[in-house]
Each structure stands twice: as structure tokens, then as C-alpha cells.
Automatic annotation (TrEMBL):
Domain of life: Bacteria
Gene Ontology molecular function terms on file: DNA binding; transposase activity
Domain (Transposase IS801/IS1294): residue spans on this chain: 138-299
One Pfam family recorded for the sequence: Y2_Tnp
Source species: Vibrio thalassae
Name assigned to this protein: Transposase
Gene Ontology BP annotations: DNA transposition
Record domain Transposase zinc-binding: where: 9-98
Length: 350
């Protein structure tokens, strides 16, 4: 059982009593799902081994994307899909961050703010690419909402393939290995366009004290696979793994995080209720897609991606990546004979 879920189960009433006005419907829905996860309330799956005729019944998981016990296969499926899209080129990681003065927007209108972040960041990258040369970019954007200390810190990590594809001439334009765009210029345009979008949005506003300089980081990350693996860690699971919760006392919780500059482990201790709220504030609104592909990496451009792979690999065979990628199925080994078991049914409580 997850340590976080056990803490949530023990302190649920106290949490709802003390922070009732800070728990939005999405947080409450996530709490209910996690408390049902792998219990009789969620239901059971029936497994059968054809080799030794062993039967077994296992509690079902909740499937919530913020549950620390679930979504292992979802994460691996996404990572496998992204790996099949990798090109034999260098990649860049562009990180668009928001100043902490905009955190109230993330608390009161998270869906509107995060949608706006995706729209503006993708528009900025496309406009920079259009000014430099002909051809379309291909990139994947992932929303993260927390800092290393697990404080609220919305930002977008965007993996960009180094190069452009000109669909009219079916030509790949190779990019520089060390340079994509100027980070300071990106930051200026990012700030200006996002503030303009906030002014135009009916649900959002611009708080006072907005700094004049924002931060956009742009760096080369090699062939791209390490960056994808980094992004997948917090994609479909809780923001804090159980292994990083190192001490649970009667009224406090201590967890660890790795400092960005020195890469050393640092401990942080919080009262239990504040710790639970710290983690729950990162529950995303229902229906918000936190991973999005653009350009020749989007789902509708599978044929285009196949042509690019042929150009870069120099192959003259059938186009790759044209068949839809199926999701992996849940499997289980028999505890008696170690053969693969089959799921023969699911029972849910009335």
C-alpha cells in the first residue's frame, strides 16, 4: 500500500475540516479514487492459469492519473510510443516557466491557465521557426506543475527535434547541434504573448507585481531518449514517489528531493496536513491533456513522420510507424507454476 494513500486515509477528515475551502472538486475526486484503489470498493479481477488450473482474485486499481499505485503501464506505453517517434537527430529541451506571481491563477482557474500556456508556447516556437527558415518543427510538450520542493510551479517542458521538414519539397533541413533559438528572445516573446492572452481571456487576469524578465531555458539534450525518460517519471503517477518519503511521524512527514545545482539530497519536513495539501494541489483538472504533440510528431502526421524517417535513415522500404500502436495488456505470472495467467472476468460492487 502506498505511504501517501495511507496518510490520506488516516487524515482525510482532518484535511477536509482544516482545508475545506482549498480542496476543489478535482482534488476531492482524486482523494476518493485513491482511497478506493485496490480495495473491495473498487472491485476484483479474476485470473486463471490454464497450465495448473490455479484461480486467483486481485483487487482492481483505480486508474486515476495521480494515484501513486496506478498507471505503470500507461507510463511505459507512452514512453514506448515516443521512442518509436525518435529521429536520428539531436534534440533540444525548451522550458517555459511562469513567475510565482501567477500562481493564484493556477489555483483558481488551472484549466484555463494551462490551456493558454500550451497555446502560447507552441505559437512562440512555431513563429521562431518560421522566421529562421522554411519547414515545420516537430515537438512534444509536457506540463509539470511542481518544483523539486513540490511547491506549485507551473512550467512546460518541450522536446524539440533539431531540424525542419519542408512538406512542399519533401526535404529535411538539418539544424545546428548546439543552437536552436536564443533563450533571451524566447523569454521576451513568451512574456509578451502570454500576458496579452491573459488580458484577452474571460476567466483569467494579470496580477500585480509581474516581473519584467521571465525565464526560458533552451539546451541540447542529445538524442532525446534520456529527456523522454525524465519527463515520464511524473507523467501518469503521483508527483512524489514513496521511496522519497523517508520519515512519517505522528504530526509530520519528511521527504527528500534532489537540489538542482549540487544534485545533493535535501530533506524537507512539513506538518502532515500541509504535506497532503502540498501534493494534492498538483491534481490536474478533469479533461486536461498534459502531453501534446505538434508539427510532424502529432498523431495525424504519422505518414509525414514515416517519410522523414525514410529520408534520415536512407531506407527504401515500407513506411515505418504507420500502424497504430496498441496498448500493452495486463499480464500476471501464476504464483504456482510461473506460467502466464489470463484475466477471465471482473466483478464490481453494486
Amino acid at each position: 500500500m502506498s505511504t501517501f494513500i495511507e496518510l490520506l486515509r488516516t487524515h482525510k477528515k482532518a484535511l477536509e475540516h482544516q482545508y475545506a475551502n482549498q480542496l476543489n472538486p478535482d482534488m476531492r475526486s482524486a482523494i476518493q479514487a485513491m482511497l478506493r484503489c485496490k480495495t473491495e470498493q473498487q472491485g476484483r479481477s479474476q485470473w486463471y492459469c490454464a497450465h495448473c488450473h490455479h484461480n486467483d482474485r486481485l483487487p482492481l486499481s483505480c486508474g486515476h492519473r495521480h494515484c501513486p499505485q496506478c498507471q505503470h503501464r500507461t507510463t511505459s506505453d507512452w514512453l514506448n510510443r515516443q521512442k518509436q517517434k525518435l529521429l536520428p537527430v539531436h534534440y533540444f529541451m525548451v522550458t517555459f516557466t511562469l513567475p510565482h506571481q501567477l500562481n493564484p491563477l493556477a489555483r483558481h482557474a488551472p484549466k484555463a491557465l494551462y490551456q493558454t500556456m500550451f497555446q502560447v508556447a507552441s505559437s512562440v516556437l512555431k513563429s521562431f521557426a518560421k522566421r529562421q527558415s522554411k519547414g515545420a518543427l516537430g515537438f512534444t510538450a509536457v506540463l509539470h506543475t511542481h518544483s523539486r520542493q513540490r511547491n506549485l510551479h507551473p512550467h512546460l517542458h518541450i522536446i524539440v527535434a533539431g531540424g525542419r521538414y519542408d512538406s512542399s519539397k519533401q526535404v529535411w533541413h538539418k539544424g545546428s547541434k548546439q543552437y536552436l533559438f536564443n533563450a533571451f528572445a524566447l523569454a521576451k516573446v513568451w512574456r509578451a504573448q502570454l500576458l496579452h492572452a491573459l488580458h484577452q481571456h474571460p476567466l483569467l487576469w494579470v496580477p500585480g507585481g509581474i516581473p519584467s524578465k521571465w525565464v526560458v531555458d533552451c539546451r541540447c539534450v542529445g538524442k532525446g531518449q534520456p529527456a523522454l525518460e525524465y519527463l515520464s517519471r511524473y507523467l501518469y503517477r503521483g508527483v512524489l514517489p514513496d521511496r522519497d518519503i523517508i520519515k512519517v511521524e505522528e504530526d509530520s512527514v519528511t521527504f527528500r528531493y534532489k537540489e538542482s545545482q549540487t544534485q545533493q539530497w535535501i530533506q524537507r519536513t512539513l506538518p502532515t496536513l500541509k504535506f497532503l495539501l502540498l501534493i494534492l494541489q498538483h491534481v490536474l483538472p478533469k479533461g486536461l491533456q498534459r502531453v501534446r504533440d505538434y508539427g510532424f510528431l502529432r498523431g495525424q502526421a504519422r505518414q509525414t513522420l514515416g517519410r522523414i524517417q525514410l529520408l534520415l535513415l536512407g531506407l527504401f522500404c515500407s513506411l515505418p510507424n504507420l500502424e497504430p500502436i496498441t496498448k500493452s495488456k495486463a499480464t500476471r505470472c501464476c504464483p504456482c507454476c510461473q506460467h502466464e495467467m489470463a484475466c477471465v472476468g471482473i466483478t464490481r460492487p453494486r
